Amino acid sequence: MATSASTPTTAPEKSLTVAIGLVRDAGGAVLLSRRKPGDTHAGRWEFPGGKLRDGEDAAAALKRELREELTLQVTAARRCFSTRHDYGGYAVRLEVFAVERYRGRARGAEGQELRWARPAELAAVDLLEGSRPVAEFLSYGGLRNDFSRP
Hints:
Helix content is 14%, strand content 34%. The protein is an alpha+beta fold. It has a single domain (14-139), classed as Alpha-Beta Complex (Nucleoside Triphosphate Pyrophosphohydrolase), CATH 3.90.79.10. The strands form 2 sheets. It has a 4-stranded mixed sheet, covered by helices on one side. Strand 5 (73-86) and strand 6 form a beta hairpin. The longest helix is centred in the middle third of the chain and has 13 residues, at 58-70. It is globular. The N and C termini lie far apart (55 Å).
């Protein structure tokens, strides 16, 4: 369709895809990461992970990001679902993975604060809006006894 002065056009929305991991401890708490000062949405909590690189699939991005950010070696992960959130000006699609097995002890390798939270506690955490559907999934029993832990 051709456009004219009377046909409004909109710039394409910027979007990115992020792979996130639901890393749980032996008691069922899930790992959260706090966005650092100077980052977009600084101080807010999110599930750990990161952006896919050009040509990288979500599973590979998950393993790379958790190794770089948390010093965890993911040995088994299963894709659960995806969700999308529009932050006004850009959209983020989250590819959500259950991290079934991993080696190492989580630490904020990039200086970010980490915390463990039980699914029932997630509603009170200042999570990024895009992470809310993931928190709801967990709080309603998603992944309960569904995968092994290290």
